Each structure stands twice: as structure tokens, then as C-alpha cells.
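Sample pair:
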Amino acid sequence: TFITMGTRLSRPLQYSCHEIAHTWTPSCSAGALDVGASCLVQSLKIYSSVYLLSEAAKGKLPSLERITKIVRGIVQSSTFLSYNAFGFVWGHCFVRFLLGFSNFWTVAFLPGWLCSFLSILVERKGRRGQLATYVTNVASESLFNSLHKKGFVPKMKYGDIFLFSISTSILLYLYKKIPTTNEATFTIFRKIIGTGEGFNSEEDISPISSPSAPATTPEGEPSLVNILLHLKHPTCKHQHSCVIATAKSFMKPFIFGLCGRILLSLYRLIRKTRMDKTKQFSTITNLGLPLFLGSFGLISKASLCAARWGHGKDSPWHGAVAGFLGGLSISFYRNTSIALYSFWKSVEILVSFLHSKGSLPTIPLFTELLYATSTATLFHIATLEPHHLKKSYWTFLNQITGNKISEVNRVLIDYEYNTQASKLLAFKPAFKPDQISDRLLGLLPTLKCGI
């Protein structure tokens, strides 16, 4: 029962933080500094690449003032991430010192929450929302995997498709509703379906003067060629006919997705030179991604034009319908991570929009609290159920901590809580007898840990 489970999981663990967390050293400060220093080095590498590539994409030589700003950004972001890693180890030791013991919730979640909340305050405000959305996306996927494996939640066969369709419906509605925004998601819409599908003033979306007003065509008798090349609704903002505009909305993202797929496949082939030739060819010619991007543009653009023809005017609600229908295109490239990220991004932008309209109250430090809770959830799962994490995120955690996240005594946690913590990695630390408790010393033969 849940009561029995709750009682078992809240049972105190009478072990030191050296015996559970920083198994490589008995010193709390040394353990925290080891992880923090490793993360600082990796953070400088990661953020240097991110900031410099972002600047290079602008295609112009930065000024001295801009270079100074970039360097400050790299240092600030690296400090934030390394403080988060350092604080996780420090937080575990600090919480155990205050309570005198550890339990299921204080091994990772509570210290993870404390260090994440404090560290996000170090990062600049402009990046906090992006970070909160990203970790919430990864945390929700990991949490769902955990709950599903335990039988608490079912897995919907087409849940990812439905979720993505709802997300793109909200996003495309807001794309047509919000006057100006620098949101990167809307930049993608501009590239796929055109800038003309964005916000229009009231004069632009008003109905045409007469329901029977003729569509824009050259003078003369309508013909199939004229329909294909010139026919468009008076409220359509695209330059060419609806047919040509729809075709362009398919071809541009399709070609972009195809090129991206080929480059990614070639990169993987270079790293795996012994792959079977048949598999190599099928990997390169997989059209899932380009069909997903192309069909999204095709369906969305066609739906928007069709809605204007049927309704006689433009409307943000057309975007909601077109976005939902276009979202079905993810059937060609089903990806839970994309669906979840799109969902949380749509929630983020919708909340921001409603807040700007005064429809939602201001919650102080909401972004920081969301980041702390989501990151704490990831720390908790990484410590107690790492097999439920995305492989890429588990690799990332090992990279920034110098593999110290893998040296947590999960064998001992398994023994006490039976959480399958050591299912992915059954690391067995070697302790010195004079640095551990008699209780753990007696358990070493059972745990098969060395001395």
C-alpha cells in the first residue's frame, strides 16, 4: 500500500555522507570541490562553444564591447552550472548535518532543490526561462518513464502526436495573436510558413467588402494556369498564389530537414565505420525528419489559406486549427522529447501572454521555483533511478561531474530502499575500515563492496 511504501521510504539511513554520496573521499568539502571544479572546466568548454557559435551565426564581426559581454556571459553561465553541481554535494552533506540522518527524500531531492534554487539566481534573468523550460521537459519525460514502469500511469499509443498537435495549435494561435516577439519558436514559423502569417492589425484581418468578391487573378478568363500561379484570397499576405505558397512551405523545410538528416547520418557513419553498408544506406535515406518538417509546413499553410477562403477573413483562431492539423505531421518522425519540449514551450509562451494581458497574477520567483523543482527531480531520478533518465542526459551528468555522479553508493541505496538504483550502474566503492561506520562495515560482504 501507499502508506507502507511511504513509511519505508521515509525510514532514516544511519550512514555518513561519505558512505552514500561522495564515496571517493571522506571529506565533504573535498567531495563538493571535486565535482564543482570538474563542472567548471566542462562548463567553460560548453558555454564557450554555445556563445561563440551563436555570435558567429550573426555573420558580423563583434565589437570590443560585444566581446566583453560575451566573455562575461560565458563566465556567468559557467559559474551558475558549476555552483549547481558543487551545491548538490554540499547540500547533501549540509542537510544530513542538520537532520543527523538521510532518507529517501533527503538523499537527492531536497539538496538538489536547495542548490538549484540558489544557483539559478546566479544566471542572468534572460536565460532563466529557457533553462526552466528545458529541465522541466527532461524531468517530465524521466518522471513519466519512472511512473509508467511502476504501473502508476498508462502509456497512450498516440499520446506524443496528440501532445504535439495541442502544442503547435497553441503556438500558431499565439504567433498570429502576439504583435511582436523575439521568441525563437516564432522564428521557426516565419521560416516555414512565412512572415505574412504572423500578427495582422484589425484592418488587415477585416472581412472583404463583398462575399462574392473575386480572388486576385490577372485580367482575362480564369484558367488552370492562372489558378495555380496567381489565385489567392485578398487577405492572404503571401506574394504568389495559395498553391505556390503552400508548395514553398513544403519544399523549404523538407530540403532543410533532408540536408540536416544527411549531415547527421554522415557524422554518425564516420564515428561507426564498421556499420553494415545496407544499414548505412538506410540511415542516410531515412526521410522521417524531412517529411515531418515538410508536411507540417504543407498542412499548416494549406489550412490557413483554406480557412481564409472559407471564412472570408483572417483570424488567430485559424492558426489554432492549422497548428493542430499540422502537428499531426509528427507521425512521420515520432519523438517524445520534441513533443514534450513543444508542450512546455507553448505553456511558457501562453502563460507569458496571459500575464501580459492581466489574466494571470504574478507569482514571485515562479521561473526560479520551477527550475529548482524540475532540476531536483532530475537529481533525484539520477541518484535513485538513473535507468529512467534519457541516455543523453545521463551522459551529460557524467561529463560535467567527472563521472562522480556514477560513484554514488547505489548498491547501498538498493539494499535499504529496493529502488533498482544500481540497475544501470552497480558501482561498488572501496572504503577504508577506519573511515566508515560499523553498520556499513558489517554489510560490506553482503553488498560485495571492497575495503
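Residues 207-217 have pLDDT under 50 and may be disordered.
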